[in-house]
Amino acid sequence: MALKSFVEVHPDSHFPIENLPYGVFKHEPSSLPRPGVAIGDYVLDLSEIFSAGLFNGPILKNSDCFLQPDLNKFVGLGKSAWKEARSTIQKLLSSNEPTLRDNASLRKKALIPMNKVEMLLPIAIGDYTDFFSSMHHAKNCGTIFRGPENPIPANWFHLPIAYHGRASSIVISGTDIIRPRGQGHPIGNSPPYFGPSRKLDFELEMAAVVGPGNELGKPVDVNKASDHIFGLVLMNDWSARDIQAWEYVPLGPFLGKSFGTTVSPWIVTLDALEPFACDAPKQDPHPLPYLNETVSKNYDISLEVQIKPAGQEHSCTVTRSNFKHLYWTLTQQLAHHTINGCNLRPGDLLGTGTISGSDPESLGCLLELTWNGQKPLSLNGTARTFLEDGDEVTFTGYSKGNGYKIGFGTCSGKIVPSAK
Q1: Which residues pair with 24 in a beta bridge?
Q2: Among 14, 137, 228, 337, which one carries the catalytic annotation?
Q3: Distance between alpha carbon 272 and the CA centroid of its chain, in Å?
Q4: CA of residue 366 relative to chain centroid, distance
Q5: 27 is catalytic
Q6: Are strands 42-45 and 297-299 parallel, antiparallel or unpaired?
Q7: Listed residue (25, 24, 96, 86) closest to 55, CA to CA
Q8: pLDDT of the chain, 420 residues: tens digit per residue
Q9: Strand spans (E) along 121-228
Q10: What is the DSSP-derived secondary structure letter of residue 186?
Q11: Is 41 exposed, middle or buried (0-12, 13-18, 19+ CB in 10 A)?
Q12: For residues 159 and 207, what is the distance between their CA atoms, to the nearest angstrom?
């Protein structure tokens, strides 16, 4: 029997009772941040539910995790706590459960219209790592920069390549992105170019939120790695391609990436996504034993990118991709991250890298879509090779069930002129 909430949820909503993603919000500008769950067009205030004594399971009844200004304490409690919370919240929001449904005063305090709240970063992000897990993206980038003869380096097929990103510049959806300044390739005998980036790009990614961490020196078994992943968000890892191209040899990305990364406000749990699990691509060569999974799975999550050009009213869809295109799985990424003994902590963020498919419409960044500026896109008659000031980029993502969607909402940002 299908689940049904007493809160009215439109069939196209990203937030039905089957989803229940977690976020952090403020009801008033002067109010303290508090954890919440999305249901339809409302936010369920978890601090009010806790204060009413409705989290009465063995783990959560004595925990103040929902009185915190972020979700780190809750995600660090692990799977048993996550399942207890999900079961409790799903029951409270069910149409046949009177506890919240028939308590008008609590309902008024605990259910807040989504358009009346300000969404904040849901976690305090201590560390952020960005992987490079899409084979199609790796092949296209390699072809653009190195030629078609050997576009993907041999090591890529043996390990999930990544770099350590900048956690301090991760921002919530809706935050403007200031065009970065930096150096670019010199032309001829001239000094390097310096100024605002001329090749500003989006990158369609998702990111895993780490739950319980691991002790320094103790790697996580790949077959237990899912116990350390709370859920997923949409992520736009904005990239200044000209700055990146000049700086990345020999140590990798730096200023071309660290100026801004945007994430969506709602963390969709792996429990909610489980009905949409699917087989991961076959890996050839076979991974080394520490990356060899008993069950290797991705998730069928449809992803879309829209760009609204500066000064225009309407957006254009430029990309339709899917999370299942990733070659390296979330669990392989996490296991590899810890194999040297590196300790992850609750709230750490692991980006997937750009998610591109094999079809031209599934390419996950302008670098690929315009082939490094050689093939301009037409957006409502306006040509674009890379992003211009005033352009707004919006990601959406969802998995489609029988009569419902498990969605992520949106992840958006607008480019504003470089600081002087």
Answers
A1: 35, 120
A2: 137
A3: 15
A4: 19
A5: no
A6: unpaired
A7: 86
A8: 579 999 999 999 999 999 999 999 999 989 999 999 999 999 999 999 999 999 999 999 999 999 999 999 999 999 999 999 999 999 999 999 999 999 999 999 999 999 999 999 999 999 999 999 999 999 999 999 889 999 999 999 999 999 999 999 999 999 999 999 999 999 999 999 999 999 999 999 999 999 999 999 999 999 999 999 999 999 999 999 999 999 998 999 999 999 999 999 999 999 999 999 999 999 999 999 999 999 999 999 999 999 999 999 999 999 999 999 999 999 999 999 999 999 999 999 999 999 999 999 999 999 999 999 999 999 999 999 999 999 999 999 999 999 999 999 999 999 999 987
A9: 128-131, 162-164, 170-172, 177-178, 181-184, 193-196, 200-201, 204-210
A10: -
A11: middle
A12: 18
Q: Count the helices and strands in the chain (H runs, E runs).
A: 10, 26
Q: Are 391 and 308 in contact (CB under 8 A)?
A: yes
Quick one: CA torsion of 258, 260, 266, 272, rounded to 10 degrees?
-40
- Residue type present at position 344: L
**DSSP letter, residue 192:** P
Q: Kindly state the tokens that stand for 180.
A: 């970065």
Query: In this structure, how many other beta carbons lie within 10 angstroms of the beta carbon of residue 290?
Result: 15
Instruction: Give the Cα separation of 49 and 52 in Å (integer).
Output: 5
Q: Where are the beta strands (DSSP E) in 78-180?
A: 111-113, 118-120, 128-131, 162-164, 170-172, 177-178
**What sign does the dihedral 288-290-292-297 (CA atoms) show?**
negative
Distances (CA, A) of 327 to 118, 157, 221, 263: 36, 9, 19, 22
Residues composing the chain: 420
CB 385 within 8 A of CB 368: no
